[in-house]
Design a protein that fits this description.
The complex is a heterodimer of chains A (100) and B (218). In chain A, 63% of the residues lie in helices and 0% in strands. With 100 residues, chain A is mainly α. Chain A contains 7 helices and no strands. Chain B has 8 helices and 6 strands. A 4-stranded mixed beta sheet of chain B has the order 3-5-4-6. A two-stranded antiparallel ribbon of chain B has the order 1-2. The chains are: A mainly alpha (100), B alpha+beta (218). At the A-B interface, α2 and α3 of A face α2 and β3 of B. Chain B: This is ImmA/IrrE family metallo-endopeptidase. Chain B: Residues 101-212 form the IrrE N-terminal-like domain. Chain B: InterPro entries: IrrE_HExxH.
Amino acid sequence: MSKNVSFGSFIAETRKSKNQSQKELATQINISPQYLNDIEHDKRFPSSPQLIEQIAAALEIGPDYLSYLAGRIPEEVKDQKLDQATFQKAMLAFRKATGK
Amino acid sequence: MPKIIRDSTGKFRQRPHYEQGELDMECEKIVCEFLRSLYGKIEFPIATDDITKLIEKHTSDFDQYADLSEYGESVEGLTEFFPKGKPKVSISAKLSEASNYENRFRTTMTHELGHVIFHDYLYKMELIESGAASIQICKRDDIISKSKYAGARDWMEWQAGYACGAFLMPASHLKKTVDNFLATKGADTDGLIDAVVTRFQVSKDAARVRLSVTNHLK
C-alpha cells in the first residue's frame, strides 16, 4: 500500500529527485510552468493521455503508473492505493495473463 | 550560535537574536554549498530557477503561482509551518507570472527562505503541543528590511528581510564587488549601486539597502 500519493505530488517528488526545476520540466514537455505547477498541486489534470506519456518519458518513468494515479485505471484497482513497485508488478502479471 | 532572548512580541516564549554576521555566514554557506552541488562552482547572480530549486530543497511544498488574494492585496508570499515535516512556501502568481516583477519574485522567494531556515524550529517547538499549523504572512513592504528599527514589522520580518539580501548578495562576494568597484571607479554611490544591481540581479532598492546594512554606503 502506498501513502496517499497523488498524481501531482508524485510528479513533483520525481522531478525534484532528478534535481530538475518546474520550469525545466515544463520546457521539456512544452507546457507552461504555470500549467505544470497546477498539475503538481492537483489543481488541474493533464488534458490528454499523450501529455501523461510525455511527462512519464521526461521523468524516465513508466506511463502506466502515472495513468493509474491519474485515474485512467478501473476504480477497483485505483482504490487499492498501490505503490509504484506493486503496481508495476500487477501490470506485468496482467499483461502476461492477457497477452497485451 | 545565536543568543536566545525573551520574545517581546508575545509570539514565542523566547526567540533567537542573530548578529548580522551570523545571518551573513549562514546564508552564504547555504547558497554557496547549493551552487557548488549543482555546478561544481559558485557564480553570481544566482539564477531565478536555481532559487526555486533551493526553496524546494528546504520545503515540503512550494507553490510558485499561488492565489494569495484572500490574505490581502499587499501579501506576496507566505510560509506555513507544521508540527512535523518541512514548511510550505507560497508566492503570489502576480510576481511569478509577470516578467517585469522578476526581481521582486527573487527577493520574495529568498525572504520566505529566510523564514524557512531561521524560524522553522521555533514554530516546531511551539506547534508540537497544539498540533496545528501556523502561517507567517509577508507583505510587500516587509520583504527587504530597511534597518533593525524601521521597515520591518517585527524581528522575524527583519531577520527574513536581512536573509533575503544575504542569500542574493552574500557578504564576501558583495565585498569583492565593492572593493573592485572602488579600486577602478572610486567613490561613486550611484555607480556602486548599479554595479551591485548588475552583479547580483537585484533591484536598485535591494542593492541600496544591502550596501547600507553591510556598511558599504556612508
